[in-house]
Specification:
Layout (H helix, E strand, L loop, with lengths): L3 E2 L10 H9 L11 H14 L3 E5 L2 H12 L5 E5 L3 H4 L4 H6 L2 E5 L9 H7 L10 E7 L12 H13 L4 E4 L3 H8 L4 H4 L4 E5 L10 E5 L1 H13 L8 H13 L4 H15 L5 E2 L9 E6 L4 H11 L1 E2 L1 E2 L4 E5 L6 H15 L1
Parallel strand pairs: 1-11, 3-4, 3-5, 5-6, 6-7
Antiparallel strand pairs: 2-8, 7-8, 9-10, 10-13, 12-13
Bound molecules: ligand TLP.
Amino acid sequence: MRPIDLRSDTVTLPTPEMREAIFRAEVGDDVMGEDPTVNKLEEMAAERLGKEAALLTVSGTMSNLIAVLCHCQRGDEFIVGTEAHILLYEAGGSAGLGGVHHRAVANAPDGTMSLADIEEAIRVPNIHFPRTRLICLENTHNRCGGEALTPEYTASVFDLARRYAIPLHLDGARIFNAAVALGVDVKELTTGADSVGFCLSKGLSAPVGSLLCGSGDFIERARRLRKMVGGGMRQAGIIAAAGIVALETMVDRLADDHANARLLAEGIQELPGIAVDPGRVQTNIVLVEATDSLATDLQARLAAAGVKASTMGRRTLRFVTHYGIERADVEEAIAIIRQVLS
Ligand code: TLP
């Protein structure tokens, strides 16, 4: 029996239309700016997010790294949430490769950081202190259960950042999930951000790639940094072709993933040995607390029974719905989890 793989939306496979587009893609040397398919994708992405320009990168991690390197110099500091992907899951790249220091501000369970805490963390001029050169937000917030930051909250952080003349970077790996869940144009979530990264290879199901978006000047500098970190790709239209299909055909269907995630949470909420709040499930991520065991133990028992989940800490399991997981798969997963726990 095929396991029901809910570890991440990164496991999504390209759609038949993507494979066809990859096969037919017109390509050229993108480091020389001559890949027409990459150029088309970058224009589309910039237009969708309301920015002047965009850059295709290898991954969400690379987009975030380039953004930090672009906004900060060695010894500078950036403000980031305690639960942020940039801080916890990117191998310490900004410090390791950029010499950029971070200042972590507590994330509330809904993925926000309080404005007062952010303001308190902004450094005043003093020779003892690094200089605050960047504030980072994440939307949707992965470790906060896929919560979507609202346009109102995001605008309030943009305003604060602007008052202090500090740029703002948005890790929007799943920004389209946020836009669909909130029923807003994605631009409402990105306006005011100096840079935004979003991923093609998660819920949008493309095989590879992320787009970093910002002003023309920012992207010009980012393009050089992409080369520096080894991310200059040649006939990358092969990748971009799938990305174009992703943007054209895979955004609206994210609502199905959100409904499936809610269904899953509702289906397992009463079970012994776990705690889950379906009311908190806004997008495609379901966090489940293992109350009687370690998350890794429960993960192993579920995997043996045919449901794959990931862990986020000692007590937390994560289930992610995505393209390729139908309502019937979720119903089956609920039945399996029920069996394992009872
Ligand atoms: N997240 C992955 C893992 O790394 C945890 C996942 O399975 O969710 N920002 C956010 C908010 C992310 O969730 C991720 C990937 C990234 C950036 C990095 O993207 P990639 O994997 O393309 O480098």
